[in-house]
Amino acid sequence: MAVKNRLKRDNILRVLETLWRNPGRSRADLARELRLDRSTVGSLVDWMIDSRLIEESRDTSSSPRGGRPAVLLRIRGGYAYAIGVELTVPSIRLYAGDLNGSLLDEKEITISSYGPGAIDSLAVELARFRKYLDHKYPMEAGLTAVGLGVSGVVDDDKKEIILSNALRIHESLSVAEPLKTVLNVPIVLFNDAQACALGEANRLQKKDLILVLIEKRSTDPIKDIGVGIGIVNHDKLMNGRAITHLLQPSHNPTQPASEQFITKLGRSLALIANVTGTNDIILGGDVDDYLEDLTKEIIRNISGEGDPSGSGLLVHATSEQGWSVAAGAHHSAIRQTLHKRCFPLGNS
Predict the structure, then answer these.
(1) Which of 170, 219, 244, 316 has the fewest CB atoms found within 10 Å of its own CB?
(2) Are the beta carbons of 94 and 129 closer than 8 angstroms?
(3) For residues 130 and 182, is the Cβ–Cβ distance under 8 A?
(4) Residues 6+ apart with CB under 8 A from 197
(5) In angstroms, rounded to a whole number, what is the distance separating the alpha carbons of residues 111 and 274?
(6) What is the pTM of this model?
(7) Number of Cβ atoms within 10 Å of the Cβ of 334
(8) Out of 68-72, 196-200, 245-249, least confident range
(9) Of 5, 15, 16, nearest to 79 (Cα)?
């Protein structure tokens, strides 16, 4: 079902992206939102239905004007799937879901090697996971994209890990080449907090939020702790620089190191929320030990009196604790490949 006409392919992916973001659109809705002629949309939709990419459903709600119910469109379950990956220590987490958001399967694998070897191990495990999924869930297009959320600093354009203390990667390492060689699908790379932020924004239907990912990497509660921050502002991911060294405890014998960490992080998050005007801060990862105190510190810095009702700020934990990064990477892979029009439309 390969589409050779470039304009037609681009418009098909625009329709697909719109239905992926907002299921239940009619043909008239799509024509209006995409600024396309109704006959063009009708032709595209007919092709997509014939190709088993989307399906129709009747609007059962009654219209004040009466008449026939609208015919709504949605992505058909079982057409294709993507895999989201959390690549960190001590495990690789794989999360497979189809285009309408249904979870297919999850798998957690202990990492046996660090450094560049971690990517080679990931390629092998992804190939095995894909084979298993293709056998259990045969689909029209099969695997269409893989998204990675990596603990560390990444270049998402070059698809390189620049630095990851957790994975012991200290020189730029290409991710796309070894994975694309094995899988032959688009590879999307994000920092783990960024991937998680996009996934949570989608889950909560929010266009603005701050996501904080806390990772404990040793038995020392502060010495080897990672803090990642992902910010979605006006439905776009904001990119910045790593400044987590500023959160390390200072030499203050009157305040325990854990309290210093909470104080500094809470103040930083309150400042980011104030500058961006964001009212949602979501805490994920190894946050259980810090959730209550950190929430109080953030609110205190926002309102000045520690009264959340006066600030309008909401601080809460991520969904799917333990799998939020992998689920976010799955969402991010579909989002980016659709938006950049590099989403495969089948294998023939």
Answers:
(1) 219
(2) yes
(3) no
(4) 209, 210, 211, 230, 231, 232, 237, 282, 328
(5) 39
(6) 0.87
(7) 26
(8) 245-249
(9) 16
